[in-house]
Amino acid sequence: MTTSRKALIIGCGIAGPVVALFLQQVGIDAEIYESQPAGRDEAGAFLNLAPNGVNVLKALDIDHLLAADGFHSVGMDFFNGDGKLLAQLESSDEEERFGSRNVMIKRGRLQQVLRDEAIRRNIPVQYGKKLTGIQLNGFQNITARFEDGTSAEGNFLIGCDGIHSRTRQLILPNAPRPAYTGMVDCGGFAQCPAGLSTSGAMQMIFGKKAFFGYIAKPDGEVYWFSNVPWPKEPKRHELNAISADAWRQQLLHNHGNDPAPVPEIIESTPGEIGKWPVYDMPSLPTWHKGLVCLVGDAAHATSPHSGQGASLALEDAAVLAQCLRDSLKVEHGFAKFESLRRERVEKIVKQARRTGNGKMVTNPVAVWFRDLVLPFFIKQGAKASEEVLSYKVDWEKEVA
Ligand SMILES: Cc1cc2nc3c(=O)[nH]c(=O)nc-3n(C[C@H](O)[C@H](O)[C@H](O)COP(=O)(O)OP(=O)(O)OC[C@H]3O[C@@H](n4cnc5c(N)ncnc54)[C@H](O)[C@@H]3O)c2cc1C
């Protein structure tokens, strides 16, 4: 059993609060430091929390907190750019197969629910604390320095600061950087265009110029995304310089010839449509150094095509706490954590990259071939995803 007792957690996104909650379960105090000035509860688009991720929240008895804002997808229907149905995936039986159902939820709401629960369980969360430096003080003490000139001390530090992790840059300055995947993701929320079916399944369209996905909530609100091929990595200021109107026109140009209601959804989306260049993380030489460990996207970000990034971050949180619970030394706990997690997550990152590449096919011959073989690959993919979705953390099991 480790004797170190206070964790500094960097980042209050998805992993941060859940790491803190699991550490609390094993008697380790944690404080969370988030760079943003306040919770961004309305920011971002939406995500699908897969059954394996929901099962992690169940272990903390907080899965029910998603009920107010989340809803379940009953499957996926795949279409080509002419509106021809290519394949279907059923997921309404996930409860029996995996012990939980997926939850579609707005990113900001998910973060809010997790953070509020951490605060309710007396875990301090400090905003406006952007990590800039780390200093080791002997074998069991570490100082985190923040941009505002303040600092915090603890016995170890967990970097939950996402794909562009500052923690990673500090402990592994020569590690590979996030890899751009050749695509900009965008999406938003719209009111249901007239005549739109609300079947409850995610509609996935291999559009003529870009991939489009949408699902209608039972109350009629449509959650949607588009994967826009963008070969050269854009700079953030370049994307920010595109006006809301110009971006909408660009999306309508990409999807104007795709089957209804794709253009109508774009047209009926109010306000600015968010846009995010898509990255994943090449394999890192290690996920930890001394009294510092990386978790979630900081260690192994996957592109969104797996629908697994958030769930993997949640799995990490539980496994890390388990490893620290059962290890005599913090460093041993970190090493055990990495050994238990690396193979699973890196396999998923690679598969997501392949899925993403498959979405960018536009050559007519390749499109013809894709339409032909897609039903087979969807079936194969569904079999392979059984292993991903059925993962459960065995919390009681001793791991060290
Ligand atoms: C467009 C898109 C769609 C996605 N869709 C899905 C999906 O459907 N399903 C799914 O499971 N996953 C999805 N993902 C992946 C998922 O969002 C991530 O895997 C998940 O957010 C990782 O959680 P995290 O806590 O590791 O990082 P994050 O959620 O990124 O949280 C990191 C936090 O650290 C803070 N931070 C950053 N730097 C510092 C610093 N220096 N000091 C202090 N704080 C800092 C940030 O402000 C942030 O709050 C998607 C990702 C994208 C980009």
UniProtKB/TrEMBL annotation:
Entry annotated with the keyword Oxidoreductase: yes
Keywords, in A-Z order: Monooxygenase, Oxidoreductase
InterPro entries registered for this protein in UniProt: FAD-bd, FAD-dep_Monooxygenase_BioMet, FAD/NAD-bd_sf
Pfam families associated with the record: FAD_binding_3
Keyword match Oxidoreductase: yes
Gene Ontology MF term list: FAD binding; monooxygenase activity
Superkingdom classification of source: Bacteria
Domain FAD-binding positions: 6-351
Name of the protein in question: FAD-binding monooxygenase
Species this protein is from: Larkinella knui
